[in-house]
Amino acid sequence: MSILRPTDTPISHKSRADPSRRPSGMRFPCQIMEWDETYTLARELVHLIKDSGLGFDIVVAIGRGGYVPARVVCDRMLYNDLTSIKIEHYTMGADPYDEAVIRFPLSTDIQDIRVLVIDDITDTGKTLEQAVEYLAGFRPKSIHTAVLQHKTCSDFVPDFYAETITEWKWIIYPWAVYEDLVGFILKILGKTVAAGKITESGEVSGEVTEPDEKTEPVTTGSIRDALATGYDITVSTDELEEMLLEMEKPGLITGKSTDGIKYWQRVAEIGGSDESM
User: CB–CB of 172/148 below 8 Å?
Assistant: First the structure.
């Protein structure tokens, strides 16, 4: 199957917004969204799209964060034509790439038709900006954009968004909980010291080892406390233990019990992944 290539006539579709970004301190505030919350936002997004009076011939989901919202919108609006492109902007643990990168390109013709692009959220706005400029090269009749949540710090303002976020926080959707938390846990284990003591700010006390050096084991409780104080993430011991065991299987971490207490140690670097954000 041939891969479609855009023309050289991209259309700018961004607006400058509040230039503030994520906090520069040691804390990294997060919010875990529940399934019912995200579905409610998706329904509100559908209402906004319907109220606009605009119609669309095809929906393009931004992979991977836009898959679920796009499917809900198609369902509620009785749209049959749904395709996707995959754009990566964030690695595991919410670390951004230097720029958004298109991994899987468009596989269908959108020339002279009305396109609705859907993602989960705008953070920096680079993902949607890249998507619109890329898709515009295929000469569609129009391109509109929609997200569940829009952060006012984003450089890109979508046409439709169900909720506005004015105070920056990292949003964790129910389809990306493990991925994000695994990245955060690897960061925590990459900053451990011999004593394994973690301060109230989510950092560790004493001399911090470099992430690429051998680190000392840390207890499940210390990891749970670091997630709570450093990331505003509350997770039960059972849930965390399950996640840590899953991380152990591919060799990201290793665990051992001493005197009835389980200790964990990082043995691998964080791997690449994409945004939702």
Answer: no
* Rounded-to-integer distance, Cα 240 and Cα 171, Å: 19
255 backbone dihedrals φ, ψ, rounded to 5°: -130, 150
Backbone phi, psi, residue 72, to 5°: -65, -45
Query: Quick check: helix, strand or coil at residue 85?
Result: strand
Tokens 């680190």 -> residue: 215
CA pair distance 115, 118, nearest whole angstrom: 10
133 and 98 within one domain: yes
pTM of the model: 0.78
Structure tokens at 153: 């710090």
117 and 166 housed in the same domain: yes
Distance CA 115, CA 99 (A): 24
Q: 120 and 235, same structural domain?
A: no
Q: Over the stretch 135-190, which tens digit does the pLDDT of each residue have?
A: 999 999 999 999 999 999 999 999 999 999 999 999 999 999 999 999 899 989 98
Partners of 265 in the beta sheet?
254
Give the distance from CA 155 to its chain's centroid: 17
In a domain, 8, yes or no: no
Number of domains in the chain: 2
Please name the residue that has the structure tokens 């791997």.
271
* Domain range enclosing 197: 177-266
Which tokens belong to 224?
């749970």
- Rounded to whole angstroms, the Cα distance separating 141 from 201 reads 51
Distance, in Å, from the CA atom of 251 to the CA atom of 246, rounded to the nearest integer, reads 9
Question: Which structure tokens are listed for 150?
Answer: 């829009």
The answer to whether the CB of 178 falls within 8 A of the CB of 186 is: no
